[in-house]
Amino acid sequence: MVGDREAIKAEMQRQVRQWCGFGCVICGCPLYIYEHMVEYAENPVHERENLTLLCPLHELEKTKGLLSRTDVQAANREPFNRSRGVTDPYGLHFSGGRCEMLLGGNRFLSEGRRLVPMLVNNQEPIAFDFNNDGHLELNASIPDRSGEVALLIVANEIVLATTAWDITFIGTRLTLRHGPGDFQFEASFQVPDRIDITRLDMRYGDTHVWVDPQGLHVRGPGPRTRDLNGTTMAGGFEHAIALDSRILRPPGIHL
Hints:
Helix content is 11%, strand content 42%. By secondary structure, the protein is mainly beta. The chain folds into 2 domains: 2-77, no CATH class; 90-254, no CATH class. The strands form 4 sheets. Strands 4, 5, 11, 12, 13, 14, 15, 16, 17 and 18 form a 10-stranded mixed β-sheet that branches. It has a 5-stranded antiparallel β-sheet with strand order 3-10-9-8-7, with no helix packed on it. A hairpin with a 5-residue loop joins β16 and β17 (225-228).
């Protein structure tokens, strides 16, 4: 019985995720299930070489006999995402006339107008926008330490670079790591209108911006140090916090 199985060890799971490009080996979807290519009932052990990732649809097809073991094994040899360098896009389901962001213990809210929690060196890492039909959309561009985009969200459609050390998408929580305990991004997508960012690590030139359980922190340029925690801001602004940026309209907070 499934309930009697020994859990797949965390390190083996990470190896499977890396090999599969953090998504279904057939279609690249970043929502996935760990699948034994040779069924566990036939070979009741967890072996790295026999594990792969399938999205819920392709896992169901395999279970029902509509997708052959041979085809899954062939896809596992050349996973969909590995040849592309990014995951297949996945559409988030944000909607409504209001939006809310939590950023390391700081809360930002808006009714019917775009919300950018922070402007960094005149760049908008993450924002809620309303399109011409009034539909709520999340947009984001989060760079890795080399400056390449690691996470891109355009009009609710999310794409992840497969060069990350590790990516997990469990329930509503998406986590990117540079290494063990070294977070690049962690957020919970609380549809229909909220995102809770608990970890973030970005560098813009000699400015380091990060979020952790203690709040939002900025180091640089030079010896400058700035921290923010426990702030709530609602409406009346487009950019809640401006970090080393020039903007025409005053932000909520200028750091």
